[in-house]
Specification:
The protein is an alpha+beta fold. The chain has a domain at 46-134: Rieske Iron-sulfur Protein. It has one helix at 4-32, and strands at residues 46-49, 57-61, 64-70, 73-78, 90-92, 95-97, 104-106, 111-113, 125-128, 131-134. The structure holds FE2/S2 (inorganic) cluster. This is Cytochrome bc1 complex Rieske iron-sulfur subunit.
């Protein structure tokens, strides 16, 4: 039996260990490092900017709705409709609209119309300077 297959096996095993070590190093540095936004701020809890939430309206950010019913007063609400769980999709004329069966919610989350049986759940948010974050 020649040494050649063993050499190839050894070389492949060494290469696998090297690749695994590189992957581990990449994962650990990524997991430990906080995510930074392009402006240098920490992005992980930021939902939106104060300036992006219209007075008398709101914005939908993933699973959260951020509204500003009156100037300077912000509310966090779940984006999940309380009827059958669709995600609300639009905010217009002071109402949050579910596209599935026509439920509408006021900016404080209370039901304005449709089959929704209860208000949108609240989400804890906080304002930090010009940013709105998950609390
Ligand atoms: S799931 Fe929203 S109205 Fe039915």
């Amino acid at each position: 039996m020649s040494d050649r297959p063993l050499d190839r096996r050894t070389a492949l095993a060494s290469a696998g260990i090297a690749v695994a070590a590189m992957g581990s190093a990449a994962c650990s540095s990524g997991a430990d490092a906080p995510r930074a936004a392009t402006d240098g701020s920490i992005a992980e809890d930021v939902l939106t900017r104060v300036a992006d939430v219209p007075i008398g309206g709101g914005v939908i950010v993933g699973d959260t709705v951020v509204t500003q019913p009156v100037a300077g007063s912000f509310l966090g609400l779940s984006a999940t409709c309380t009827h059958l769980g669709c995600r609300v999709a639009a905010i217009a004329d002071g109402l949050i609209a579910c596209p599935c069966h026509g439920s509408r919610y006021h900016l404080d989350g209370s039901v304005a119309a449709g089959p929704a049986p209860r208000p949108l759940d609240t989400r804890a948010i906080r304002v930090d300077g010009d940013r709105i974050l998950r609390a």
